[in-house]
Every structure is written in structure tokens, then in C-alpha cells.
Design a protein that fits this description.
Layout: H1 17-28, H2 31-35, H3 37-43, H4 50-75, H5 79-86, H6 91-124, H7 132-140, H8 157-175, H9 177-205, H10 210-218, H11 228-241, H12 248-254, H13 262-295, H14 306-320, H15 324-358, H16 362-381, H17 386-416, H18 420-430, H19 437-464, H20 472-495, H21 508-517
Length: 540
């Protein structure tokens, strides 16, 4: 029985629409914008890649961003609560997204720790000229031999200590709440990130050979447009770049005030994110052009992405360029800031979900979430086998976690629950940019086709040969086993009862919102029955 003690905590909110926009951009602008997009664009036809990229942005990225905004803002809750308010059977979709964020948070923090250490190393050129590769893998990570893939207990202090610092910083930000913590952090870090990266780009443009790098980046290869793989790459990149289907934008939009321009905000976020990616491409390839000239080779011979670009190629540039230390500090500092703004958005998905489910206070929930995640992060990623575990978890959670939940969510919401007309009305009631039939077709038809194609392609690739040559038992635990566990745990969490203290039990703010919408929830649009009482029974 619910009693007077089952009080709820007032739902937090962003201080303003501008703070939300900065926070959403902070989530979208992450490590992938800096170290993945430039190489994806280069491999996809250079300047010609902008055509599939813009098509993907306009036909999939922005529509799905609006989709997440509509769910979070309409149902006023974390991912599990929002999906359950939409329909009680849809709650597992929310927990699936939460668990994906759990996995990502655990390994994302260690990359930030690496970047933080390399910011310090750059100031002193610690790795020594010509030793960048060995320094990263052997001296810094102390990586185990490929033949020794497994889970080591050998602690690497130069990784573990900064990892603790990263977790302490993000815990403080998260504990301060949405307005005082996340909002203020993004208000400080995003302008700093923009200024730092702008300076980095300008400095890179004045390096010898910079124009060769830019020519390699922008020169269009029109033949690439005939390759379906290039288009698939563009859609895949946009999908991950905008942080859709992580539960992040659902959660963030739930903190917006009722009368907010949703689609206008979404357009600002989407184009700001793309603008940063193009800026990153200019800066990265200008620097790679210098590196190619210094080594007497073509840009193709030095172009890379991901960890190879950040922790091997850029240290090489830092060693060879005049004023290289400044380039290194700016580059790795930008990685740290971009990583922190993304990590706090990932953690917020988890914290908000447990707050809604359990009705706990902010600090208690933050510590309950972050401390165990920090311990697991330390145990797995401050050891000599960190790289192989990170590589596998990242590859599988992206392909079979995020893409899979996005595909299932779109199909269920659009085709089984028929909620797209409700979302069109909701978006148009508050927004400067109106959506209609075209948006419904893009979300309900094009998105499932694209996601299905990407998912099947990834599945065939990973089934045909072991990922990165790792042993079967290792992939079974950190790859396929993890993917299956996400779905099973999502179903189990959905089966657990919601606390009487939950935001979902008695939520005057949500009731007021429904009244303002002049919308009466029916049997399928349940608010959330948690603790049934003889007086009120189940909501809806």
C-alpha cells in the first residue's frame, strides 16, 4: 500500500533552452567527431562524401533526433519511464538503452584518462621522437601480447591513477544535478572546447604540407558515390554521431520546460555537431599533411582513425612540428573536454533511470551508479589487457546494442504502437520547424531499412571471421555474451516493481502536462502503475 511516506522528488530541469542545446551538443560532440569522422570522410570519397553525409544527416540523423526529443519531452521521464508511459510493454526498450550506456561508460572513462595523460606528455614530449608507437603500447599501456588475450590483474598505475581522477570529477558533476552540475559543466567546457579546437585548426593550417592534407581530405572522388558501402558508412556515422538511441536525448529532452521549441533546438544541435566534425576534419588532415611531408610519403600512408590517429599519429606530429607541444596540449585537451561532456550525458541516462525507478535523491543515486561503474572500469581497463577488452566491447555494443535497440524501438513505436501521429502533433505544437508525413516516412520506413541493412551487414561480417582474430571464448564473453546479456537484463529490470517513492507513482508535473495537452491517456498510454492502491489503483 502506498502511504504518505511515498513522496516523490521534484523532477530536475535545465535552466534554459540554451543550456539544453549546449548540453546536447556536448553529448553529440565526442571522441568520434575528432578521431573518426575525418578518416571516414577521407575513405568515403573526400569532398564527395559530403553528399551522402548530408543526405544521412537530413533523412536519418535529424528525424531520429526529433524522434528521441518527442519521446522524452512528451512522456517526461528517463528512457525506461518514458517508454513505459508510452506503453507498459515498451519499458524494456528503455532499460536496454540504459544498459548500453552502462557498458559505454565503463570503457569511455579510460580513453579520457589516456587523453589526460597525453596532454601532460605533450608538454614534455615524454615519448621521445620516433618512439610514439612503442611508447603508447609498451611503455604507457604495457599491453599484453596478442597471443595472451584475456583479463589480467596486473595494474598499470599511469592509467589507473588518472582513471580514478576522471571518475571523481564526473561523480562531482553528476551529484550536483542537472542544472548546477551537467548544465554548468557544459556551459564551461563546450566554449573552452570550441576555442581550443579553433586554435588547433588555425595552428595546423600554418604547418608545412597542410595544404596537401586538405587536398587529400576535400578532393572529391565521385566514383565513391556508386559504392553502397560509402552510403552505409555515412548513415552509420551520423547515427552514432548524434547520440540517438542511447537514451541520452530522451533523458535530456525530459528536462526541458513544457513550452520549448523542440525541432528548432534539434536543428541547432545537429548542424553544430556536423560543423564541429568538418572543423575536426580540417584540423586533423592539415596536421596529417604535415606529417606526410615530413616523412616523405603520401597522406594515404599516414591517414588513420581512432586510437591510432590520436595516440600514435598525433604524437608523431607533436614531435616533428615547430611548437608541437602546443598542438599536443590543444588536441588532447580537446579530447578530454569532449570526452567528459559525452560521459556525463551517458551517465545521466543511468542515474535518471534509477531515480525514476527507485525515487531516490540525486546524490544517493549518483553514488550508487558511479562507484560500482568506476570499480569495474578500474578492474578491466587499468590492466595490461585493457586494449583488447575495450576494442571488443566497443565494437559489439555499437553494432548489436545501439543499432539493434534503435531498429526495434522504431518498429515498435511506429508500427505496433502507432505513436508517430501523436509525436507529430506534439512536435508541431511547440516548434518553429514543422514536421508531417515526410518525417513519419523517414522515421517509420527509411530508418528501419537503413538500420536493418547496417545491422545485417555487421552480423555477417562478425560471423564470417572472429573479430580482430580474438579467441572464441573471449568474444563469447565480451562480445556476443555481453550483447545477449543486455537484452536479458533489460527484461529482468522491467519485471521489477517500481518504488512507491518513484517519479512515476504520483507525478503532478506529468499530470499537469497531460492536462495542458488536452490528452487523456488510454489503456495503452499508461502513465506508470507502480504500487496499486484501493483509492487510485493503476494509473490508466
Amino acid at each position: 500500500m502506498a502511504t504518505a511516506s511515498t513522496q516523490t522528488h521534484k523532477r530536475e530541469a535545465f535552466g534554459s533552452r540554451n543550456v539544453f542545446i549546449l548540453s546536447a551538443i556536448g553529448s553529440a560532440v565526442g571522441l568520434g567527431n575528432i578521431w573518426r569522422f575525418p578518416y571516414v570522410a577521407y575513405e568515403g570519397g573526400g569532398g564527395a562524401f559530403l553528399i551522402p553525409y548530408l543526405c544521412a544527416l537530413l533523412t536519418a540523423g535529424i528525424p531520429l533526433l526529433f524522434f528521441d526529443y518527442a519521446i522524452g519531452h512528451r512522456f517526461r521521464g528517463s528512457a525506461p519511464l518514458a517508454f513505459r508511459r508510452m506503453h507498459r510493454a515498451a519499458e524494456p526498450l528503455g532499460w536496454w538503452q540504459v544498459l548500453i550506456c552502462v557498458v559505454i561508460a565503463v570503457y569511455y572513462a579510460v580513453i579520457i584518462a589516456w587523453a589526460a595523460m597525453y596532454t601532460w606528455f605533450s608538454a614534455q614530449l615524454t615519448w621521445g621522437p620516433g618512439n610514439e608507437n612503442d611508447f603508447f603500447f609498451i611503455d604507457f599501456l604495457r599491453s599484453a601480447d596478442v597471443a595472451e588475450v584475456g583479463v589480467s590483474t596486473e595494474f598499470v598505475p599511469q592509467v589507473g591513477i588518472p582513471l580514478v581522477v576522471v571518475w571523481l570529477i564526473v561523480i562531482v558533476i553528476m551529484a550536483l544535478g542537472v542544472k548546477r552540475g551537467i548544465g554548468r559543466a557544459n556551459m564551461i567546457l563546450m566554449p573552452l572546447l570550441t576555442v581550443m579546437f579553433a586554435i588547433l585548426v588555425v595552428q595546423s593550417l600554418f604547418l608545412p604540407g597542410a595544404m596537401e592534407g586538405l587536398n587529400a581530405f576535400f578532393t572529391p572522388n565521385w566514383e565513391a558515390l556508386a559504392d553502397p558501402g560509402v552510403w552505409a558508412s555515412a548513415y552509420g556515422h551520423i547515427f552514432f554521431s548524434l547520440s540517438v538511441a542511447f537514451g541520452i536525448m530522451v533523458t535530456y529532452s525530459s528536462y526541458l520546460k513544457r513550452k520549448t521549441d523542440l525541432t528548432g533546438s534539434g536543428l541547432v544541435v545537429a548542424f553544430a555537431n556536423s560543423g564541429f566534425e568538418i572543423l575536426a576534419g580540417i584540423g586533423v588532415f592539415a596536421a596529417l599533411g604535415f606529417m606526410a611531408q615530413a616523412q616523405g610519403t603520401e597522406v594515404a600512408g599516414v591517414a588513420s582513425s581512432g586510437i591510432g590517429l590520436a595516440f600514435i599519429a598525433f604524437p608523431t606530429i607533436v614531435s616533428q612540428a615547430t611548437g608541437g607541444s602546443i598542438i599536443g596540449v590543444l588536441f588532447f585537451g580537446a579530447l578530454v573536454f569532449a570526452g567528459v561532456t559525452s560521459l556525463i550525458s551517458i551517465l545521466e541516462v543511468i542515474v535518471a533511470a534509477l531515480q525514476d525507478k527507485l525515487g531516490w535523491a540525486r546524490v544517493r543515486t549518483t553514488l550508487t551508479v558511479a562507484i560500482p561503474l568506476a570499480i569495474v572500469s578500474m578492474a578491466l581497463f587499468s590492466t595490461t589487457t585493457a586494449l583488447s577488452v575495450l576494442d571488443t566491447a566497443d565494437a559489439f555494443v555499437n553494432a548489436f546494442g545501439i543499432m539493434a535497440v534503435a531498429l526495434v524501438a522504431v518498429i515498435i513505436v511506429a508500427w505496433l504502437l502507432h505513436k508517430l501521429p501523436v509525436f507529430v502533433e506534439h512536435l508541431n505544437r511547440r516548434s518553429s520547424f514543422r514536421v508531417g508525413l515526410l518525417w513519419k516516412l523517414l522515421v517509420g520506413v527509411l530508418a528501419p531499412l537503413v538500420l536493418g541493412y547496417l545491422l545485417v551487414s555487421e552480423l555477417m561480417t562478425k560471423l564470417n571471421e572472429p573479430y580482430s582474430g580474438y579467441p572464441g571464448w573471449f568474444l563469447a564473453i565480451f562480445g556476443w555474451g555481453m550483447v545477449i546479456a543486455l537484452v536479458v537484463l533489460a527484461l529482468l529490470l522491467s519485471a521489477l516493481p517500481w518504488s512507491g517513492r518513484s517519479h512515476a507513482k504520483d507525478d503532478p508535473e506529468y499530470d499537469e502536462f497531460l492536462a495542458e495537452e488536452q490528452y487523456e491517456p488510454d489503456a495503452e498510454t499508461s502513465a506508470v502503475p507502480i504500487v496499486a492502491t484501493p483509492e487510485k489503483g493503476e494509473r490508466a
